[in-house]
Specification:
Elements (H helix, E strand, L loop, with lengths): L4 H20 L7 E5 L4 H9 L10 H5 L3 E4 L7 E4 L9 E10 L2 E7 L5 E10 L8 E6 L4 E2 L4 E11 L8 H4 L9
Antiparallel strand pairs: 1-6, 2-9, 3-4, 3-9, 4-5, 5-6, 6-7, 7-8, 7-9
């Protein structure tokens, strides 16, 4: 070996190892990183849920009152509203995409991982009353549950207030538009 060749060989080893580790992080699984974005959770939740609510994330709970149904249990399409805390000064919103069990859901959200849209990310109910008032969220960078317990208000359902889930279409239609009622 000539002088300096050992360093070049080690450089290729590091390059190959880095490539393998990078590709290992590209696999599927929970909470896969999405595209880079400057979008925050509020416009993302508004766009995905179709609920035209305004304000910071924590303000959605009050803004939804009387317009949308509130619930302590998730449903696909519902928006989980995080309370504001020292870690989440504006609160946070996540849109439920699937129910795994009574205490675990899958959400899509923006900016949980800074400047990223994360899809298929698990959220676990850790509340004492099984009412989703305290949750832990999957943290994609570590491929593990986050250690912080976040307080939440609950779920805003994507249906008008006063309409039961699974209600007939006639019940959801304003009475002035119904024929024969």
């Amino acid at each position: 070996m000539r002088p300096g060749q050992g360093l070049a060989a080690r450089g290729w080893v590091w390059l190959a190892l880095s490539a393998c580790l990078t590709l290992a992080g590209c696999g599927g699984g929970y909470g896969a990183y999405g595209q880079a974005t400057a979008m925050t959770c509020v416009p993302y939740a508004r766009q995905v849920s179709g609920m035209p609510l305004q304000g910071d994330a924590w303000q959605w709970w009050r803004a939804a009152r009387g317009r949308y149904a509130e619930a302590s249990a998730p449903a696909p399409g519902s928006v989980l509203v995080f309370r504001r805390t020292g870690r989440l000064p504006s609160g946070h919103l996540a849109v439920v995409s699937a129910i795994v069990s009574p205490r675990q859901v899958i959400v899509d959200q923006a900016n949980w991982v800074p400047y990223r849209i994360t899809k298929s990310q698990p959220v676990m109910d850790v509340s004492a009353g099984n009412d989703w008032t305290a949750v832990r969220v999957w943290w994609p960078p570590s491929h593990n549950w986050g250690v912080t317990v976040y307080p939440t208000y609950g779920f805003i359902q994507p249906r008008p207030a006063g309409v039961q889930q699974g209600a007939p279409i006639a019940q959801m239609t304003p009475s002035g538009l119904r024929v024969g009622s």
